[in-house]
Design goal:
single chain, alpha+beta, six-stranded antiparallel beta sheet, 2 helices, 6 strands, disordered N terminus
Length: 147
């Protein structure tokens, strides 16, 4: 035993381990190339004005001055049939940052948020335009097959 330590030598490594695990868990909530949103960057569900489903894993959310691309873990087919979305975020502030535990609550089941990205107005518009073009292409393809 080191004088003046009083047996606390195991507490520091244990604390360091808990801290490291906590950081690893919070970092795994987003992908490595996506910065984690903080504070005012996070989605305040009260400001969400609308949303668009891109596919069964991705939605765009218009929250006024902020726009978001949100990807959920696994297919969330309930997004296609939901007229209203509810977000589960921080238990204190209600903000959704893409952290562990954040989810989109649909009528059927919660869809865990896997990745959340703040995007520009231009990126938001481009994604909506791309979605419209893809839908138009698929519609024309179905029409040509039925003819």
């Amino acid at each position: 035993m080191v004088p003046g330590n009083h047996g606390g030598s195991m507490k520091i490594p244990a604390f360091a381990l808990v801290l490291a695990l906590g950081l690893a868990t919070s970092a795994s909530a987003g992908s490595p190339d996506t910065p984690i949103l903080r504070g005012s960057q996070c989605l305040d569900p009260d400001f969400a004005r609308g949303w668009v489903e891109l596919d069964d894993r991705t939605i765009l959310v218009d929250a006024g001055r902020h726009k978001y691309r949100i990807e959920v873990g696994g297919a969330c087919t309930s997004l296609s049939f939901s007229s209203v979305l509810v977000f589960r975020g921080d238990p204190v502030s209600g903000r959704v940052c893409g952290n562990l535990g954040d989810a989109i609550l649909t009528r059927d089941y919660p869809c865990k948020i896997e990745r959340m990205q703040l995007i520009s107005k231009a990126e938001y518009k481009q994604a909506i335009d791309d979605r419209a073009a893809e839908r138009k292409r698929r519609k024309a393809e179905r029409k040509s097959k039925s003819s």
